[in-house]
Every structure is written in structure tokens, then in C-alpha cells.
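Quick one: co-fold with Z5A.
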Amino acid sequence: MTQARGLFITVEGGEGVGKSTNMAFIAEQIKLAGFDLVITREPGGTALAEQIRDLFLNRRAESVAEMTELLLVFAARAQHIDRIIQPALSAGQWVLCDRFTDATYAYQGGGRGLNRDVIATLEKLVQGELRPDITFLLDAPIDIGSARVAARGAEDRLELEQSEFFEKVRSTYLARVAAEPDRFRVIDAAQPLGDVQSQLRVALTPLLRREHG
Ligand code: Z5A
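Sure, here it is.
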């Protein structure tokens, strides 16, 4: 019997909306339901891709060209898919990934203004047919996320951007939800953490009723 492909779940949203906090909650629910889970993130997920993440995020004197930024995230993604995501899914494991290509459309497309068709071309080249099955979008007004990040301190290169950039990121995410409503589960991340996790639990319940591979 051929192995059923695992479920590919991604978590997206602007800065400070609570992705890291809620990744742990989602992972716990999936594991409690008995599924074999790989938890990972982008950019990153392998040693080489994490090095690319550092190149991508570290603050530096030299400004980073928009196309360089785009190619760095797709270089990291190519490695991550080949070494981690695709093997896990093929083996029937579930993959839970903190950000994926929706972030590229939101940040490099919406935020930086790079052409959407160029991103789509790279998406097809690097990913083939691979797309997330389900995406949780943690959505909150940008001032809420910014305040949470500021309280945490030590901002990376992208977190230094102005609010206009983050408004474009948020509106691009919401436009993607409108274009693919079946894939996205939008969570109101402005609520207290307990309420955010209640929303996540409701959204996860039907997924966790699936048969084990
Ligand atoms: N990027 C890109 O440009 N293109 C791409 O293709 C990809 C990524 C894949 C790294 O992502 C950067 O890469 C990111 C986009 C870019 N840049 N930005 N900005 P990252 O995921 O590592 O960084 P981030 O988006 O900035 O995430 P973050 O700063 O780590 O925030 P978070 O994970 O969403 O939030 P958190 O750490 O879980 O929570 C922040 C604080 O808020 C923390 O103290 C929590 O305890 C608190 N918190 C969380 N939820 C709540 C609620 N509900 N109430 C109150 N307080 C809360």
C-alpha cells in the first residue's frame, strides 16, 4: 500500500502577531491527536537554510537589493523543501512550518513591491506543485504586533521597516485569503492569548479527525 502524504500546514502573519507562541500550541494539539509531526520554519529549517536566514535577516551597512532578498528566500526554500519538507510529507508525516511562500508574496511582493508574476515563476520553479494544505493567518492591526516586538527588543533588518511597509504586508495577506478562502483559516490575533488559542482549537478540530496515515 502506498503511504498517504502528510498534511502541510503553515502559519503566517505580520511581525509580533504571535506565530512562535502559537506554533507551539498547534504542534501540541497535532501531537496529542497522534500524528507524527515535523516542526520547522522559513527562512531556515536546515543548517544551510539557517545560514541563508542569517544573511537575510542580519542588519548590515550594505543595503540589500530587493531581488537579492527574493532570491535568498527562494534559495533557502529550495534546500528546505528538498531536505526536510518533501521527504517528511512523502513519509506520511505532517509538517508545521512557521511562514512559507505566502510570506514572500506579502513581504517581497506587497512590502517591497516586487512583481507578483516574478514570485509566481520562482514559486513554480522551486516548489513544483507543492503548496500548503492549510494556512493559519494570525491577523492583527500592525500597531499591536509592533508593540509586542518592541517590548521584546533587538529588532532584525525587516523589523526596522516603517508602518507603511507592514500595512502593505497585512493587506497582501488579506488579499491572498480572499483569493484562496478554502486554504486559509484567519485567526484574530489581537485577542488575549487564551482566546486566540480557542479559535485555533476550533479550526484544528476537523483536521485532527483525519485518518492516520
Ligand atoms: N520573510 C520574508 O520577508 N519573506 C519570506 O519569504 C519569509 C520570511 C519566509 C523572519 O520571520 C522574517 O522573515 C519576517 C518576515 C521575513 N520579518 N519580519 N518582520 P520571523 O517569523 O522569524 O519573525 P517575525 O515575523 O518578526 O516573528 P516574530 O517577531 O518572532 O513574532 P511572532 O512569532 O509572530 O510573535 P511571538 O514571538 O510569538 O510573540 C511576540 C510577543 O507577543 C511575545 O512576547 C509573546 O509572548 C507576545 N504575545 C503573543 N501572542 C499574544 C497575545 N495574543 N496577546 C498578548 N501578547 C502576545
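If it helps, The pocket of Z5A is lined by residues 13, 15-21, 42-43, 57, 73, 98-99, 103-104, 107-108, 148-149, 152, 158-159, 189, 192-193, 196 (CB under 6 Å).
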